[in-house]
Amino acid sequence: MSALQRPALIADIGGTNARFALTDLAAPRPDMHQVRTLPCCEYGSLQHAAEAYLADVGQKPAQAAIAVACPVDGDAIRLTNRAWAFSRSELQGMLGFERFDVINDFGAVAWSVPALSPDDVVCLHGDPALPQRGPVSVLGPGTGLGVAMLVGDAARGWQVVETEGGHVSFAPIGEEEHKIQRWMNQRFGRTSNERLLCGVGLSHIDAALRDPGTGPSPLGDSATVLREPAAIVEAALEGHDLNARRTLARFCAVLGSVVGDTALIHGAKSVMIAGGIVPRFIPFLQSSAFRERFLAKGRFAAYLEKVSLHVITHPQPGLLGAACALRQSETPA
């Protein structure tokens, strides 16, 4: 790799993985170099993970943009799905950054959308071209359920609205989803969309559908032991595990409802679905009730017919978006 003229650190910190890279602010377009994925469970804090990465690549950049899976108001930051917390000002001092931007993780994914190429997406419905104007809804399941909105247009510039829309209440449709909601409420007191539309959410749906319906089972009861999300997806796609297929089908149906709700709330002209889960089973999603549930909004079904739907398949949209956000906010020299 040739020497970077103006290296900056970019990072995408989720509940499971901490992704790091370098970007060259002197390059004509947002770029990524020395990409590394570090398991969060192997580090006691974000500082330790960042120090390990910077030591590995042998760089001491003066600027950084870090995307985190949580709200980013104020100096104190606490991740939603990982026991990591930090002070912006203290971490900036410890890592020696002259400039240190902290953004929401799905805000970063939204920032990546204008920088994507046609090869970075799969069109599910509507205009296959990438969006040229907003509003664009950006959401997706991963360790949690991220939601953001991209507004503006390609000609005049884009802006990102960061949200915590994944935590709104789940609205079940049909007896199977009401059963899932009752199962979840017994264990968590409330069921948000994120409780279902995330990695462990797949495990929860699977367990709820396997539960005989006699109430909360004792810890260790085979009916409610959580299966790994990846194993559920693999079994569903292989085709012989009926409950795994029911689970993935229900996940896709609920996702369709939530994506449709989000598009209506945002007044979206297009939707970009991201996260580490959906790209693994795009053909299954296309054959599921996802689109039917997306359109099932009564008088506004015709409105949603005009909304294009894409899945982001770029391997690191959070890192790309962090690089874009760093450039967007940079004051010209």
Protein topology:
Layout: E1 7-13, E2 17-24, E3 33-39, H1 46-57, E4 63-68, E5 76-78, E6 85-87, H2 88-95, E7 99-104, H3 105-112, E8 121-125, E9 136-141, E10 145-153, E11 157-162, H4 174-188, H5 193-196, H6 199-210, H7 229-238, H8 242-266, E12 270-273, H9 282-287, H10 290-295, H11 301-305, E13 308-312, H12 317-329
Parallel strand pairs: 1-4, 4-7, 9-12, 12-13
Antiparallel strand pairs: 1-2, 2-3, 5-6, 8-13, 9-10, 10-11
Summarize the helix and strand pattern as letters. EEEHEEEHEHEEEEHHHHHEHHHEH
Question: Biggest sheet: strands side by side, in what order?
Answer: 8-13-12-9-10-11
Beta-strand segment tally: 13
Low-confidence stretches: 214-222
Gyration radius, in Å: 20 Å
Structural write-up:
With 333 residues, the protein is α/β, with parallel strands linked by helices. Helices cover 37% and strands 23% of the residues. The chain contains 12 helices and 13 strands. It has helices at 46-57, 88-95, 105-112, 174-188, 193-196, 199-210, 229-238, 242-266, 282-287, 290-295, 301-305, 317-329; strands spanning 7-13, 17-24, 33-39, 63-68, 76-78, 85-87, 99-104, 121-125, 136-141, 145-153, 157-162, 270-273, 308-312. Strand 5 and strand 6 (85-87) form a beta hairpin. The longest helix is centred in the last third of the chain and has 25 residues, at 242-266. The two termini are 26 Å apart. Mean pLDDT is 92; it is low at 214-222.
